[in-house]
Specification:
By secondary structure, this protein is an all-alpha fold. The chain is 70% helix and 0% strand. The protein has ten helices and no strands. This is Anion transporter.
Length: 183
């Protein structure tokens, strides 16, 4: 038909007014930061700084990774923290003879512990912007929540995670042998 007129599902003006542009910019900035870490080889510097973990017992390495990534995510987005830490933890674990999942799984959970600062996550920023809570109140409550989260993740990483994901000496040896042959 010649008299048919196109009607968009969503009009641009409605889209512009109703999209959370701050969240989109925050995610984009996080991805840009992670890309800059890798392009500038800063992630290699982080890997060297975390190299001391390779000489530690596995439980100590896990708690250190959980604490470092948990506090790092307070100043960057969860996505960028994970993007920065995962390749680093993979190389640290492989060079230590540990299955990378022993470090990456706890880190995955720890980067979600962004409770202390308004810049940590968009929901934190929304709560702070309401004016109902001060930064110092967020920090006090966030530290307690982070410490509880660190403890829960540490206990999970050393008890049920290895059983659920079948992480033992045999699977670690197979994994390390496979990566050695592929490389």
């Amino acid at each position: 038909r010649h008299d048919w007129k196109y009607e968009p599902i969503v009009k641009w003006t409605s889209l512009v007014q109703n999209i959370s542009w701050g969240a989109i910019i925050l995610l984009g900035a996080g991805l840009s930061l992670a890309s800059a870490f890798q392009t500038s080889m800063l992630s290699e510097s982080v890997a060297k700084a975390l190299g001391f973990i390779s000489n530690m017992p596995q439980a100590a390495a896990i708690i250190i990774i959980v604490i470092i990534s948990g506090f790092f995510t307070e100043v960057t987005s969860n996505l960028s923290t994970a993007t920065i830490f995962f390749p680093v933890l993979d190389s640290v674990a492989t060079s230590s003879g540990i299955h990378p999942a022993f470090l990456i799984l706890p880190c995955t959970l720890a980067v979600s512990l962004a409770f202390m600062l308004p810049i940590a996550t968009p929901p934190n920023a929304i709560v702070f912007a309401s004016g109902a809570i001060r930064v110092i109140d967020m920090i006090k409550t966030g530290i307690v929540m982070n410490l509880i989260g660190f403890l829960v993740i540490f206990l999970a990483a050393n008890t049920w995670m290895p059983k659920i994901f079948d992480l033992n000496d045999q699977t670690t040896a197979i994994f390390l042998n496979m990566t050695t042959r592929i490389i």
